[in-house]
Amino acid sequence: MSSTFHVPAAHSGSVAVATQIGYAVGILSFVPLGDLFERRRLIVQLFAGVALSALLAAIAPTLWVLGLASVLLGLTAAVTHVIIPLSPELADESERGRAIGTVMTGLLLGVLLARSAAGWIAALWGWRVVFALAAAVNLLFVFLLRRRLPALPPPNPLPYREALRSLWTLFRTEPLLRQSTALGMLAFAAFSAFWTTLVFLLGTPHYRMGPGVAGSFGLLGASGALIAPVAGRLSDRRGPRAVVTLSLVLLILSFLILWTLGYHFLGLVLGVIVLDLGQQATQIANQTRIFSLSSKARSRINTVYMTFYFLGGSLGSLLSSIAWMHFHWAGVCALGTGLLLLAALVHVAGARSSSIA
After folding, report:
1. Which residues cross the membrane (predicted)?
2. What predicted TM-score, i.e. pTM, was given to this entire model?
3. Do 288 and 240 touch, CB atoms closer than 8 A?
4. Mean pLDDT, to the nearest integer, of 155-167?
5. Looking at the predicted structure, is the pLDDT value of residue 10 above 70?
6. Are 285 and 240 in contact (CB under 8 A)?
7. Fewer CB atoms inside 10 Å of the end CB: C or N, the chain?
8. Which residue has the higher pLDDT, 222 or 32?
9. Which residues contact 142 (CB under 8 A, 6 or more apart)?
C-alpha cells in the first residue's frame, strides 16, 4: 500500500486504524439490531455490505478512498457480532462458555487463516487482489446464508432509539460489564499494537522479510483459536475470573518475551504463540461473563463490550505506529506491557467488589 500510494509505511497503517474505527461504529450501530429485528435478514444484508465495501477497497484510486472503504468495511463486518450472541441462546446454561468457545474457534481460525493468506496473496499478486477475493467470498455467503440460515426472530423487540438509550443504562448499572469492557479494551489495544507493527519489524534490515512472512505469523495464532473451547470449558468449571487472571499473566509474559527476544526469530515465534493464547482466553472469559447478565439483551451487551474493544484496538494501532516511529520495537513492547499492567490493575480492583464474578 505504501508503494502504491507513495506514502510512508506509518501512513499506510492508518488503513488498519480506519477499519477498526469503522468496526467499532458498526458494532454500536448494527449489533443492537440483533435484539430488535429478524436476524437472518440482518445478517444477509450486512454480508452484502461487506462484499461491496471490499470491492471499493480493491479499486480505490487513492489512500483516502481506501481509508473510506476501510471504514465501510469495518462497519459492515460487525455482522460477526450479530452472530456471536446466538451461541449462548442456543446452548444449555451450564455449557454457555463451551458454546461461545466453539463459535469463537471458527471466528478466530477464519481471522488467522485470512491474515496468513492475505500476506502471501499480497506478496504474489498485490494487496488489491486480497480485497477483490474478500468481496467474492462474502458475496457467496450472501446467497448461502439466505438459503441455509433459519429464521431467527428477535428476543426483545424495541424501538431502535430506545435500544440505543439502553446501552448507556446497561453500562451504568452493570459493574461486571464495565470491568469486562475495560479489560477487553486494554488487552486488545496491546494485541493490536503488536500486529500493526509486526510487518514493520520484519521489514527492518535485521529480518528483511515481506508481508507474506508477516501474514504467516497468523498461523501461529491457531494456538489461540485452539484454546478457545478449553477456555470456555474452564470458565464453566472454575469461573471466568480465574481464566481472566491466567490470560493476563500470559499476555504480560508474551510482551516480555517479545521485548527481550523479539530480534531472535524463535523468540518472536514464542512470543506470538503466548500472545494469541492469552488474548483469546481473555475474550472467551469476558464474553462468558457478560452474556450471563441478561438473555434478552445479549446483542446490546455485546454492543457495549465490542464497541470499546475495537476502540481499544484502534488506539493500540495508532499509538504503536507513533511508538515505532520514535522508539522502534522497544517502544512498541513497552506500550503493550504498560497497557496490560493497567488491565491487571482493573482486574485486581474488580476482585474487591463482591458484585463482580
Report:
1. 12-30, 66-87, 99-118, 124-145, 182-203, 209-230, 242-259, 303-323, 329-351
2. 0.75
3. yes
4. 81
5. no
6. yes
7. C
8. 32
9. 44, 47, 48, 51
Domains present along the chain, CATH in parentheses:
2-351 (1.20.1250.20)
SS3 6: coil
Q: What angle do CA 15, 21, 23 make, to 5 degrees?
A: 105
- In percent, the amount of the chain with pLDDT more than 90 equals 35
- Using the structure block, give the residue that is written with the C-alpha cell 516511529: 325
Alpha helices, H only, the chain: 2-5, 9-12, 14-30, 39-58, 63-77, 80-83, 86-90, 96-125, 127-148, 160-173, 175-202, 211-220, 222-238, 240-261, 265-291, 298-351
CB atoms within 10 A of CB 86: 18
- Tracing cell 489512500 back to the chain, one arrives at 63
Segment 313-348, tens digit of pLDDT: 889 988 998 999 999 999 999 999 999 999 999 999
Longest dimension (CA), the chain: 57
State the Cα–Cα distance between residues 318 and 24, nearest whole angstrom. Answer: 15
C-alpha span between 288 and 283 (Å, rounded): 9
pLDDT, position 221: 66
Mean pLDDT score, 78-92: 77
Instruction: Write the CA distances from 294 to 85, 176, 271, 331, 356, integer angstroms.
Output: 11, 12, 37, 41, 15
**Any idea what the Cα angle at residue 15 is, between residues 14 and 18, rounded to 5°?**
85
Q: Which residue type, as a one-letter code, is found at position 137?
A: V
Q: In this structure, what C-alpha cell is assigned to residue 287?
A: 464474553
